Amino acid sequence: ICINNKENKFLNQDLKNQEVESKINDKNEQNLGDVLKELMSKVGYIDYLVESKEEERIEKIKETNKLLIKYYAFKQEEFMANSISIRPFGWKDKVGYMIGNVANDLTFIFASLYLQVFYTDVLGINAALVGTMFLVSRVVDAFTDTAMGRIADMTKATKNGKFKPWLLRACGPVALASFLMYQTSMSNAPMTLRIVYMFGTYLLWGSICYTAINIPYGSMASVMSTEANDRAALSTFRGLGSLIPQILIGVVMPMFLYTKLEDGSQVVNASAFPIAAAVLAVGSAACYIICYFM
Questions:
Q1: Residue 254: half-sphere exposure toward Cβ, Cα within 13 Å
Q2: Roughly what angle, to the nearest 10 degrees, separates helices 272-293 and 91-117?
Q3: For the segment 150-189, what is each residue's pLDDT rounded down to a tens digit?
Q4: For the segment 235-267, what is each residue's pLDDT rounded down to a tens digit?
Q5: How far apart are the C-alpha atoms of 59 and 52, rounded to whole Å?
Q6: In 3D, which of 70, 78, 64 has the Cα closest to residue 25?
Q7: DSSP type of residue 205
Q8: Is 161 left (phi over 0), alpha (psi -120 to 50) or beta?
Q9: 3-class SS of residue 47
Q10: CA Rg, the chain, in Å?
């Protein structure tokens, strides 16, 4: 082995093979990279001195090859230890993503169809004030949605990625916050307290907890596959996931939330709201967990 410098000398004592091998055995990535660069910069297979003995040249080549083989073996072992096995995209991913949207819409559609009814007919809050609260929450969402997107994107990736762990982190809070919005016991509280309760619980659910799980869930589709057809399939299955809550909440739930009087008119069954909210909240959390493990 020849040093490609002005003096054309062999590797000096501070680069002797024992030191190089010691650095490799230490498995220090920075040292290993430096050693490899130093070896490759100073080893020249073309520029061997003519006066070098054939036996010495061959021996040096063998020693260097052993070191390089040992280095690459270590790097391969390190790569295999850190690598993550990824299964091919398939039906399990599509169905799992669909179930995730079932979880989203169990609380979202219930709030969309019946929350205003609960605020006006059960709590007795003025409809104009309820509408103002919805408007304020949309303004708040403009900031919390952006912030959550940044948080999810900057989160350190785990073996399950950046976005998927948020399904487990936020499924409990979003279910609890949804349940807290439908407490009929607040109907006897002073009006000021009812208004504060309405703003507080709705912003907690919609602008914080639901955002914390829906933004990462929606972002999962972009990283589950690089194929356009796969992403289109995920969008289709996400739409299918909305049908189950729509049928359950839009068709079945009114049977429990309204009571028919003798004159044929219907009135709100206030006591049914917390029960329905609890059932849907538990179902939503369960679907999020299923989505996470699929």
A1: 9
A2: 160
A3: 999 888 888 888 899 999 999 999 999 999 999 999 999 9
A4: 999 999 999 999 999 999 999 999 888 777 788
A5: 12
A6: 70
A7: I
A8: left
A9: coil
A10: 32
